[in-house]
Amino acid sequence: QVQLVETGGGLVQPGGSLRLSCAASGRIYSISRMAWYRQAPGKQRDLVAAITNGATTNYADSVKGRFTISRDSAKNSVYLQMSSLKPEDTAVYYCNVIGLVDYGPSFNSWGQGTQVTVSS
After folding, report:
1. How many CB atoms lie within 10 A of CB 50?
2. Phi and psi of 49, rounded to 5°?
């Protein structure tokens, strides 16, 4: 079993910045992909950014140039640096990690979510 703990959400003014962190723990053998999703009220959960174990990244068009995803493989952690935040970035942000546990099976784990509110 793999657990994810997210930190870093909060209230920020338009144009401001926030950094989200997500740490994975448990019987992890390897991680192939780490990602951030977000879900606004009444909307579906959408991909924001993802990074593979080869450091390939992809971003939603709406956040390109403003958000940066990074990972620390030694710490099984992923980060999302968010800049030039807009009110439409307001949502619950979820961390997602895919990999293998040490006894063989794959896992696909989600964090509990952290609220990001962009408002003046």
Report:
1. 19
2. -160, 150
Percent of the chain with pLDDT over 90: 95
CB 41 within 8 A of CB 88: no
Alpha-carbon span 81 to 63, nearest angstrom: 11
CA-CA distance, 119 to 61, in Å (whole number)? 22
71-104 residue pLDDT tens: 999 999 999 999 999 999 999 999 999 999 988 8
Q: How far apart are CA 108 and CA 91, in angstroms?
A: 22
Amino acid, res. 35: A
Cα angle 6, 88, 95 (rounded to 5 degrees) comes to 20
